[in-house]
Amino acid sequence: MGETAKIDISGKTIELPVLKGTVGPDVVDIRKLYAESDAFTYDPGFTSTASCESKITFIDGDKGILLHRGYPIGQLAEQSSFLEVCYLLLHGELPTAAQFTEFEHNITYHTMLHDQFDRFFQGFRRDAHPMAIMTGAVGALSAFYHDSTNVEDPEQRMISAHRMIAKMPTIAARAFKYFRGQPFVHPRNELSYAENFLKMSFSVPAEDWKANPVLTSAMDRIFILHADHEQNASTSTVRSAGSSGANPFACIAAGIACLWGPAHGGANEEALNMLIEIGTVDRIPEYVQGVKDRRYRLMGFGHRVYKNYDPRATVMQKTCHEVLDEVGDSDDPLLKVAMELEKIALNDPYFIERKLYPNVDFYSGITLRALGFPAEMFTVLFAVARTVGWIAQWKEMIEDPAQKISRPRQLYTGATQRDYVAVNKRG
Ligand code: ACO
Q: Which of 303, 305, 362, 378 is the pocket-test mutation for ligand 1 (most atoms within 8 Å of CB)?
């Protein structure tokens, strides 16, 4: 055995293997702990627990580093495209020109939905939150594409991956159109992934729609920034759901449900609402005091893993300026509030001591609003982008022989065994 860690418990010393990754912290392998010691470990929220082995994404939260298959997120956001990043996440390597052409064709030619699927949307109330529609509609995909639900077949796994990456923008745009009361717009194969999504979201039959290259490139970059983030809450949910052998569409629906929460994907909506509530720069000190008094949290700040500037926030801030300049909104008062709030927080001991820095959501709300999306759509866009990460992680889990059904244990602190008492005898 190589390096080991020793635990002294109940008068016994247990020796546990220490596993080494290519980078990142060592991992103590506790799989044999219960069998050898009759003890579990306790780690709510998995703050110190690696639930799997993965080759997809690496984060060094202290240094603010995010790598996909080894490539820094900044380089991918500046030089790659979302579809190329999708290929990279799914296959492990950047594609050759021929591989990319084939991949792009596969995605483009899977963007349409089954015609009957559209009737599914009509069942929702008009004022339904688009995320509620997403959760239901994506889960329903398994009813329409039964042929790609065999998780044991690698070819079917790849087909369902293509189907989901391709169809998610179509479903998201339909959720938006339904929410707005506008007719659905079908995908067009001559458009790029981001262009197609923007067209399906914003074009109306009453006028021609023209792609704006600055906004298209911003949308594509936003998708890249959200494509994967190793074992975050929604990804762990997808892996957990998939560990039982559930079909990939159902697993992604579970991920979407988890993403909806304000501590996760809902944070950009909350961050934008916070900036609107603050309204003007002069109200920032009062708001920051409220955060310090623990009346509320500074949304878009802090991260479970990053204890440094989120590298995605740097790209997002730049994208935010580009989009606001393009739409003629560079004087947006919310941008002023955001920049001033960031400056104040980064220099305040309360935030410095707790290592609270802006995360990707801090600037994404303002950017998405400038692109024309209402706050209700923000998490939906996150779900569109994260689908590839979820599916790549799900695929990796299925293909990993060490994976088992997710079944954590617990520290039980409830009543010990007692006898049932008839209702007329209860005090
Ligand atoms: N504002 C103010 N204080 C904060 C914030 C914040 N946004 N985040 C953490 N803190 C404080 C906590 O009060 C705590 O202080 P204490 O030690 O004095 O009690 C300390 O920092 C540590 O906080 P935890 O909640 O233990 O940190 P954790 O790692 O569990 O939380 C989380 C991470 C949930 C993201 C948190 O920072 C948060 O709620 N942020 C706001 C929501 C947000 O922006 N989420 C987006 C995450 S990024 C994404 O999903 C893409």
A: 303
